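pasting for ref
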Amino acid sequence: MKKKVNLKLEQKKFEEYANKKLKSLQKKLLLEHHFLKPIRYDPTIEATANYTLDYPYRDIRIKYGDGMRDAWVNGDRASVDQYLTHEICHVLTDGLMKKALERNTSEEEIRDQLEQTNEHLTKLVLTYVK
């Protein structure tokens, strides 16, 4: 029989963990000139998480959905760390995305390349930034 989980309590624990992890990554990735806002749950997110980088203020906003929350509740810290790292790595590639959208390339091609680049950066960070 599965143990009953208090989702509100787990979300609070997760957000405390995630905010510390993101703050650490922000410093290690030399992104301290950005303002990292506290991570927030958004039940409408179909992906595991998403980010927004607000210009010109450089606010980093990361929201997470059920997929990340479920990984946390199930004790899958490796996946949680990968998801968090992936989202903050988007800040490194966001300028490229904005410029690329100004060119004669389809948005689908640009987004595909951006995700490939960001996933590569995620693996590098997970390997070298502990």
